[in-house]
Write a structure and sequence with these properties.
The protein is of the alpha+beta class. It is built from one helix and four strands, in the order ββββα. The longest helix is centred in the C-terminal third of the chain and has 13 residues, at about 65-80.
Length: about 90
């Protein structure tokens, strides 16, 4: 018998101050990375999918990002100059 499946992992990459596109408030946004990995006998082997999102801490609105957008926001957050998302 072979036991296989998937397991999700959620990583918080950064906390950024952005103007929310949903509520319009300047608030903290968490930049998150969700990785789904294939498992064999409950051991994670390799990533199946990777998704990036930002979530407003004021209203809870979530926005999907591409990998390039996430890396740009992460780099700008590390340098301290973050522009609002478009």
């Amino acid at each position: 018998m072979i036991i296989f499946g998937t397991k999700g992992y959620l990583y918080q990459l950064a906390v950024l101050t952005l103007v929310c596109g949903h509520c319009g408030n300047p608030a903290a946004h968490t930049l998150r990375k969700r990785v789904t990995k294939f498992t064999l006998f409950f051991v994670p082997l390799f990533p199946v999918s990777t998704k990036y999102t930002t979530q407003c801490t004021f209203c809870g609105a979530e926005r999907k990002l591409t990998g390039q957008e996430a890396e740009r926001l992460r780099a700008q957050g590390a340098s301290g100059t973050v522009s609002p998302p478009v």
